What does this fold into?
Amino acid sequence: MIVKFSCACGNTSPSRAKEYDGSLGYEAIVCLDCGRYSDHSGEHEADKWSLEFCDVKKSPASRVIERDVS
Ligand SMILES: [Zn+2]
It folds into this structure.
């Protein structure tokens, strides 16, 4: 649960950020507006991983349905 959030792009809404809770204790908060993310080592520019993470979170249901059909 994100209670406080701010990004360099100007997004300060926790509802437009997603928490990534990975294995081995890795955690990050990804901005859904621009893809920048913060983890234990600081803030990072958007990269392939963070952008894919945003897309998956936006449409998880459609991807599952596509796989079920085939
Ligand atoms: Zn941002």
In short: The two ends are 35 Å apart (CA to CA).
